Amino acid sequence: MLSECAQAAFPAGVVNILTGGDELGQMIVEHPKVSHISFTGSAATGKKIMATGAGTLKKVTLELGGNDPAIVLPDVDIADAAPKIFAGAMMNTGQVCVAIKRVFVHESKYEEMVDALAEQANAAKEVMNDGMSDGTRFGPINNKMQYARVTELVDDAKASGARVAAGGNRTQQRHHRGHLILPSEPLAKLSDVGVRNRVLAERQGRLLLRADGTRRRAGGRPRRGRGAVRPGHPRPEVH
Questions:
Q1: From first to last of its 239 residues, what are the pLDDT tens digits of the chain?
Q2: Burial grade of 197 (CB within 10 A; 0-12, 13-18, 19 or more)
Q3: Which residues are catalytic?
Q4: Which residue range forms the structural domain that includes residue 194?
Q5: With contact defined as beta carbons under 8 Å apart, do 180 and 204 qualify?
Q6: Do 89 and 35 have their domain in common?
Q7: pTM of the complete model
């Protein structure tokens, strides 16, 4: 679709769209006539692009992974915030760099938020399809490798002490027209799963955490810019 739009809007040769595997990306980064590389993806691949591009002094623009949080304090109206948080986490089926990946919830609002997000996730099953069908809001995971990675993270969260309030049934996750995963809401106390848990540390995971009064850094020290959301009053009182 993008290729067809580009053909109509630009002269021949101005926009070229190539598809392929890792070897194609390597060839583009190494090519002496390519002067600027823009990449969105993992930090590991970003490092390889920087190192390879240095050989031909390429300009490099990198948009790398982050673990974007939503922070829910006692002043928040859960009925208003939950649909917005769910939408922020699941836009483009969660495959967006600034999608919400962690929800830190004050213990006074925790159970209410659990129920509200579970309701959102269960309702989403009705609008999941292959992406080409009318009424689809949530399509499949991009490829088999990412599908396996996401399901692995859900399993790891459960093994670490989290419980799944919605989705997570592997027998329902594979769809004949794409890698569909029922929206899952792993839930845990931060002190139970540990701050180095994979679903906290890796960007593909989604986790809703109960704030239990313990000061902990979740997912390590940030090294790159990330998005964050805090619904509610601009100057809340927290006890």
A1: 778 888 889 998 888 888 888 899 999 999 999 999 999 888 889 999 999 999 999 999 998 876 788 888 888 999 999 999 999 888 888 888 788 888 888 888 888 988 898 888 888 877 777 777 787 888 888 788 888 888 888 788 778 777 777 776 553 444 445 676 666 555 544 444 444 455 555 544 445 555 554 444 444 444 554 567 777 665 555 44
A2: buried
A3: 63, 97
A4: 69-211
A5: no
A6: no
A7: 0.69
